Amino acid sequence: MKVLITGSLGRIASQIIPELADDFVLILTDVKSGEVAGLPVSPLDITDYHAVVAATKGVDAILHLAIASQRDIITNKTLFDRDEGEEYLAFNDLTIETNIRGTYHLFEAARRNQVTRVVYGSSLTIYLGSPAYETIHDELPPRPHNFYALSKLWGEQIGEWFSRKHGLRVYCLRFGTPHPQPDVPEFTGWLKNPRAVATFVTYSDLASAMKAALLAEGPRFGAYTIVSAKSGNIFDLSKSIEIHWQPRDFIESDGTITPALKPTE
Prior knowledge:
This protein has a single domain (2-259), classed as NAD(P)-binding Rossmann-like Domain (Rossmann fold). The protein contains eight helices and twelve strands. Helix content is 35%, strand content 21%. Helix 1 (11-20) crosses helix 8 (203-215) and helix 4 (86-112) runs parallel beside helix 5. Strand 3 (34-36) and strand 4 (39-43) form a beta hairpin. The strands form three sheets. The protein has an eight-stranded mixed beta sheet with strand order 3-4-2-1-5-6-7-10, with helices on both faces.
């Protein structure tokens, strides 16, 4: 299977590409060129529809991991977190262009080029807004945490429409917080917050979920929470049986990773 991956230089993609390279022919793209695991990454601006159409010709599936990034925009995080200021508006504009317009372009190009499968990197943050759910399963009404989370929910809806209207096979993976992230200043604080740890997912579990979604022959559309196993997990992962996935890693309360104690039911 020939798989085009967007956002290949990002945190998640760069970690999981080595685990996918033995099973798929990978075409790696990002907004800029580079290299991951010895494989070239070609530049692709997903907000340019014609460029996306050209890039997706002849591929069997798309793994869409490109996202709007705060990295080059946000300097005043406190003001941004209050939904105020020019940086807040600038990031939301970027989010619309990348997460919504870019996502639409990929689905439209897939339809045009007869790419039959799209795996969409969604986010667990669509469920993490206030008031907080005590336990979370994939049939709950979404409560987006912020505007970025709202954009990921819109992306899921774009995928559902293309699946229902045009017959694409679309699987939305609602990623938790990648673990570990020792380079992130907030990481130490997350480890002290049980609800934050509950959202953690290892890169190995992310890779296995993406592989499962690229190969699954379940419903033509589905959306699934992707987190690693934990004691007293607040996330119900039972729906993921539709794509034959379950976490293979168990994350202890202190962040230690061990093999999953038992299959997730």
